[in-house]
């Protein structure tokens, strides 16, 4: 009988109890690639329409109060694939790709989707409830219920908040305080329901990150590599642009 010697990497992995991941798997990011491709495709298609048709598409996909009250729940999904300004999309999509890539690398595809969806839908519904109360109380005009409300910002800000779980413990309070402060500044300066949604999305992401830390589910994650630190910095740039840009 011939006994084959285990490869050093495999043997070390077995002894340590950690399964070695092939290098190519590090670049297998299905959610990131698929979502970015869909955003590009939708942006190109919308940019080919006339201004009037573009407005119709955006309003139809918007998660504004008018659509939600009329039962158009599908807008909770469609709004995440439409970026109203095609010119802004040229900058937003690459930056978002960095955020998605880092999240999928370190959290995995399922956690990435959960946080993004929680931020996007959670912040949208909370804002809608606030707007409904304000409109019913006549604090705000009914016209605000038909405002355009599409984009990736709520989901992106939730992911950026969740990145607190990737940082050393000494930097976590700084990350949380800075993003909450910038989001509050955005609310004060912008004074729109979108700014409020950004603040809520950051809070949702931070809550998810703190939950992972407290539950010990991300203990085994290694420290950020230099490329990953670059992705984190790029994500921070996107977050700043979305909040106060």
TrEMBL record:
Coiled-coil region: none
Subcellular location as annotated: Membrane
InterPro entries: Rhomboid-like_sf, Rhomboid_2
One matching Pfam family: Rhomboid_2
Lineage: Bacteria, Bacillati, Actinomycetota, Actinomycetes, Mycobacteriales
Record-given protein name: Rhomboid family intramembrane serine protease
Membrane topology: Multi-pass membrane protein
Chain segments annotated as transmembrane: 27-46, 76-103, 115-135, 150-167, 174-190, 196-213
UniProt keywords, alphabetically: Membrane, Transmembrane, Transmembrane helix
Keyword Metal-binding: no
Chief location bin: membrane
Top-level division of the source organism's lineage: Bacteria
GO CC, alphabetical: membrane
């Amino acid at each position: 009988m011939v006994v084959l010697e285990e490869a050093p990497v495999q043997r070390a992995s077995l002894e340590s109890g950690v399964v070695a991941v092939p290098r190519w798997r590090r670049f297998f990011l299905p959610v990131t690639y698929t979502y970015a491709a869909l955003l590009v495709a939708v942006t190109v298609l919308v940019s080919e329409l006339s201004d009037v048709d573009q407005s119709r598409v955006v309003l139809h996909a918007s998660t504004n109060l008018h659509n939600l009250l009329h039962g158009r729940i599908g807008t909770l999904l469609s709004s995440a694939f439409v970026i109203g300004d095609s010119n802004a999309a040229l900058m937003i999509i690459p930056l978002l790709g960095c955020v998605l890539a880092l999240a999928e690398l370190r959290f995995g595809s399922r956690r990435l989707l959960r946080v993004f969806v929680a931020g996007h839908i959670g912040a949208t519904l909370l804002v809608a409830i606030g707007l409904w109360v304000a409109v019913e109380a006549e604090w705000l005009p009914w016209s605000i219920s038909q405002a355009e409300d599409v984009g990736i910002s709520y989901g992106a800000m939730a992911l950026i908040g969740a990145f607190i779980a990737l940082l050393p413990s000494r930097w976590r309070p700084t990350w949380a305080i800075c993003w909450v402060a910038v989001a509050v500044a955005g609310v004060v300066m912008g004074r729109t329901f979108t700014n409020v949604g950004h603040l809520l999305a950051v809070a949702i992401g931070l809550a998810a990150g703190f939950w992972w830390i407290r539950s010990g589910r991300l203990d085994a994650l290694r420290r950020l590599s230099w490329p990953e630190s670059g992705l984190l910095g790029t994500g921070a740039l996107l977050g700043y642009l979305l909040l106060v840009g």
